[in-house]
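User: I've been trying to design a sequence by hand for this structure and keep getting stuck. Would you show me what you'd pick, starting by listing the structure so we're on the same page?

Assistant: Good idea, let's start from the same input. This is the structure you sent:
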């Protein structure tokens, strides 16, 4: 008896909520029924043909507004019912997100499902007394449960969260080298693409960037995309890049792009110490006169690119070289920002003993990592709970990374554009023409 009563109550609740959840669908069905009842089936056929024709013209003439206002909304309604509503209870119970109190089960409630071009956003009302962290810890279970490649949790307010499930991977295909911008914005260099299809823009002026990833994860593409985006300014002389290339593989290809280049320990340390001297000279000139750096030919933005920084700070056999390199890097990263000196470094192993300076880099890029515990080491505490599974990045997708974009603590999945050897040769040849 109780069970049947519960079913009836749920059915009534569902019917009452239906017009609020799906107003267009319920309105259309009611309108169709009314036309069929008052005017007959022939007129219903005419009305449906007119509406269908109108929608067809809309789709044909204005496809993007049709997609936004009709296609994605219809998809959202469909996925709400077919994917999320249908699997909600079993997935949440198995994932341990259903709560029990006095032998009653309480489930978080789906408020709304909306679709963008690439993802489903499921807005959820939490059960009172639970926290968004419970969902953040279960992102893997949720993603697998709803058949999505990943899941990200965003908190909108009290008991109000959004679960974002990508429907397809927008980063599955290699992205060719980005077009070189005519006007270089050093605070927004085009690097590649974000998971939602928007451009991934990197700030370099006023910060330092550390790129971490195992061998073959695509660190080179991050460095080269940044250098490529700056080439017009390098040609104009308002940006100067000094490169340290211990592996002699990554950067030697485009040597003409670099104002200075070093490939062994001693030369690398000298380069870093020269950079420190240049920075301090600039700081002395600016003192009391200028608070921010504006790149000019006389005072260019100086970018120190270091491939495999641990070679200098941890692996170099000479202790003196290691110590001097670490000192110089610490000075550059702690004092360079406001005087127009930035360090863009790459690193394979983020463990503390390998690089003590990790925290001096305000911006970090986590390419594919070896272990789950390294994610928070690179992107900061809580990054993995928020869905930055850099250790699960597919080895077949080099260049894919997690980053924190400015003004947000939510890690975003991005893919760096692939700058091929031919692209680098073309960039270097252009530079020879200028020199
Ligand atoms: N963004 C990218 N998109 C597609 N393919 C890429 C990308 N970046 C790198 N690759 C491919 O992956 C290979 C390894 O990349 P890369 O040498 O940049 O890795 P790495 O992290 O610098 O490795 P190592 O530390 O060994 O130098 C490249 O030869 C290239 O074929």
């Amino acid at each position: 008896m109780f069970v049947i009563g519960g079913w009836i109550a749920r059915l009534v609740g569902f019917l009452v909520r239906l017009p609020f959840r799906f107003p267009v669908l319920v309105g259309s069905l009611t309108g169709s029924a009314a036309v069929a009842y008052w005017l007959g089936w022939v007129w219903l056929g005419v009305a449906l043909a007119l509406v269908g024709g109108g929608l067809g013209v809309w789709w044909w003439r204005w496809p993007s507004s049709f997609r936004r206002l009709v296609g994605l909304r219809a998809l959202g309604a469909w996925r709400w019912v077919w994917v999320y509503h249908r699997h909600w209870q079993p997935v949440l119970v198995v994932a341990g997100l259903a709560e029990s109190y006095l032998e009653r089960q309480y489930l978080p409630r789906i408020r709304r499902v909306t679709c963008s071009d690439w993802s489903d956003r499921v807005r959820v009302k939490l059960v009172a007394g639970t926290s968004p962290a419970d969902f953040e810890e279960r992102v893997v279970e949720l993603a697998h449960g709803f058949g999505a490649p990943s899941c990200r949790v965003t908190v909108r307010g009290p008991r109000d969260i959004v679960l974002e499930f990508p429907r397809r991977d927008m980063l599955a295909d290699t992205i060719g080298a980005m077009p070189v911008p005519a006007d270089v914005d050093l605070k927004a260099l085009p690097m590649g693409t974000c998971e939602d299809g928007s451009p991934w823009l990197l700030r370099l002026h006023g910060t330092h960037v550390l790129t971490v990833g195992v061998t073959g994860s695509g660190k080179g593409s991050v460095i080269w995309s940044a250098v490529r985006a700056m080439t017009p300014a390098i040609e104009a002389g308002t940006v100067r890049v000094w490169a340290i290339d211990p592996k002699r593989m990554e950067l030697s290809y485009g040597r003409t792009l670099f104002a200075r280049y070093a490939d062994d320990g001693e030369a690398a340390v000298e380069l870093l110490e020269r950079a420190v001297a240049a920075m301090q000279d600039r700081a002395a000139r600016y003192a009391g006169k200028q608070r921010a750096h504006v790149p000019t030919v006389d005072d260019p933005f100086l970018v120190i690119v270091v491939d495999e920084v641990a070679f200098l700070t941890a692996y170099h056999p000479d202790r003196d070289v290691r110590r001097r390199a670490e000192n110089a890097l610490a000075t550059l990263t702690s004092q360079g920002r406001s005087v127009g000196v930035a360090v863009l470094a790459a690193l394979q192993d983020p463990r503390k003993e390998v690089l003590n300076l990790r925290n001096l880099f305000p911006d970090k890029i986590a390419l594919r990592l070896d272990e789950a515990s390294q994610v928070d080491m690179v992107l900061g505490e809580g990054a993995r709970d928020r869905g930055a599974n850099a250790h699960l990045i597919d080895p077949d997708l080099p260049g894919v990374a997690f980053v924190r974009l400015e003004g947000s603590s939510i890690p975003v999945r991005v893919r760096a554009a692939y700058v091929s050897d031919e692209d680098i040769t073309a960039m270097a040849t252009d530079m020879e023409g200028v020199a």
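That's my pick for every position. To get oriented when you compare it with your attempt: The mean pLDDT is 89. Residues 174, 213, 215-221, 250, 348, 398-399, 416, 418 surround adenosine-5'-triphosphate (CB under 6 Å).
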